[in-house]
Amino acid sequence: MLNDIQIRSGVIGGTLFSTALNIGMNDLLFTAVMSMIGAVVSFFVSYILRKLFSDSDKSKNA
Question: What is the mean pLDDT of the chain?
């Protein structure tokens, strides 16, 4: 049982450590910019869809 936990923690720790060393500043910057663009686009699409469907609901009730 203890050996299994040691193997798992060693594999996970080694994977995380080797991945962390291979991530560069350009990758982090690119990810941050892309996530900001995605959030802005998502906000505007949700806003536009909400306006479209709320206007159609008002016209059905009138």
Answer: 87
pLDDT score recorded for residue 48: 95
d(CA 8, CA 10): 5
Q: What is the 3-state secondary structure (H, E, C) of the chain?
A: CHHHHHHHHHHHHHHHHHHHHHCCHHHHHHHHHHHHHHHHHHHHHHHHHHHHHHHHHHHHHC
The number of domains in the chain is: 1
Q: What is the domain range of residue 49?
A: 2-61
Rounded to whole angstroms, how far apart are CA atoms 34 and 28? 10
Residue 32 in this model has a pLDDT that exceeds 70: yes
